[in-house]
Amino acid sequence: MDVELRQLRCLVAIVDEGTFTDAAIALGVSQAAVSRTVASLERALGVRLLRRTSRTVTPTGTGLRVVAQARRVLGEVDHLVREATSGHTRLRIGYAWSALGSHTPTFQRRWAAAHPETDLHLVRVNATTAGLAEGACDLAVLRRPLEDQRFDSAIVGLERRLCAMAADDPLARRRSIRLADISDRTLLVDRRTGTTTPELWPPGSRPDTEETHDVDDWLNLISTGRCVGMTAESTAHQYPRPGIVYRPVRDAEPIAVRLGWWRDDPHPAGQAVIELITALYRTG
């Protein structure tokens, strides 16, 4: 069975315009072409879609269902075309947990001022590539190396590691902590996108772990006092939460912030994004 988009467009035009003549005018074709096209669709589907009289054309019950589905199909195709052709006028930047932390609003404003021709959209996708592999974004802010050879990346900044804990935790009274201070605690981690693993601690003094897959769940569990978490500094800026405090871990290595993109399909604005974000991190 071969159903073509032109057939679906013809059917929708007939229903919308009310007659074959008006549908032909709307489509810019002859009335005979409209008749042939809708007849070929009915043959392909094996059902009658329209009732024809000398004055009116109305859809059958099956026709109504087919028209409704045809509208959805044509809408999806139009969306596909826009996605494919608007790449240079729209820029989607994905991130898993936090975008650029305290730099996020400055980045958005400076980008809009310097590049008004390219609309910027930040998209949160809690996946390993922050939406790159899923096609949800053009560039991705990442805080762990990309192992997939389909992608390239560049380091654009560094962030401190912070420990998130309940506000009434005894460690919350300190201005900073060390890794050893939480080695006997339960550490809440996201193994897909998180930056913290037990390997940060020396063998024999590694904390127990529990796993989560969402920043809100992570924060909710930490607020109970049962677990602590370790994260990039940007998380503290993007997710301040009553009942949660963040303290620097002074003997933990900083986290590299990377910008990733498809190796064989880089966005034209990629270099400008790298330069702006790098400048923001460099100036603090």
TrEMBL record:
<keyword id="KW-0238">DNA-binding</keyword>
<keyword id="KW-0804">Transcription</keyword>
<dbReference type="InterPro" id="IPR036390">
    <property type="entry name" value="WH_DNA-bd_sf"/>
</dbReference>
<dbReference type="GO" id="GO:0003700">
    <property type="term" value="F:DNA-binding transcription factor activity"/>
</dbReference>
<dbReference type="Pfam" id="PF00126">
    <property type="entry name" value="HTH_1"/>
</dbReference>
<dbReference type="Pfam" id="PF03466">
    <property type="entry name" value="LysR_substrate"/>
</dbReference>
<dbReference type="GO" id="GO:0003677">
    <property type="term" value="F:DNA binding"/>
</dbReference>
<comment type="similarity">
    <text>Belongs to the LysR transcriptional regulatory family.</text>
</comment>
<feature type="domain" description="HTH lysR-type">
    <location>
        <begin position="3"/>
        <end position="60"/>
    </location>
</feature>
<dbReference type="InterPro" id="IPR005119">
    <property type="entry name" value="LysR_subst-bd"/>
</dbReference>
<keyword id="KW-0805">Transcription regulation</keyword>
<protein>
    <submittedName>
        <fullName>LysR family transcriptional regulator</fullName>
    </submittedName>
</protein>
<dbReference type="InterPro" id="IPR000847">
    <property type="entry name" value="LysR_HTH_N"/>
</dbReference>
<dbReference type="InterPro" id="IPR036388">
    <property type="entry name" value="WH-like_DNA-bd_sf"/>
</dbReference>
<dbReference type="GO" id="GO:0032993">
    <property type="term" value="C:protein-DNA complex"/>
</dbReference>
